[in-house]
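Consider a typical record:
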Amino acid sequence: MTNDKGHKTNDQFQRSSTLFVNENQDQKARPDLALTIAQAADDRKGENIVILRVADVSYIADYFVIVTGFSRVQVRAISQSIEDQVETTWQRRPLRTEGQADGSWLLQDYGEVIVHIMLPHEREFYNLEAFWGHAEHVEFNSRQS
């Protein structure tokens, strides 16, 4: 290997640095998956659907989708609708799902999007929108309205 002056060098670490970026990555993460999730929740009559872009304020995820279900059965139905729609549209399954047994707060982790489906009491008590209040809100228009 030679350096920039043409001298031979044995230093294996002396290379120009290059940042490789996946061609699907944007400087600003796109909300497509989050919008698919929000629409699937809306299809099962999820209420008060909020999409927060948390990428600038957290390394946990790029987006949070927060949804209210009014019974444990509805919370689970919303979760299943999201799983089905994301698998159909994006050929993806959640990396992790928590709260399925209890059904009062169900969390689905899709990596760049984390979904919170909650009963009204849990949503009011934990108030994630206030905790992440400095995050950008992404517009979502419900078909139910």
Q: What stands out?
A: The two ends are 65 Å apart (CA to CA). Residues 72-90 form the longest helix (19 residues).
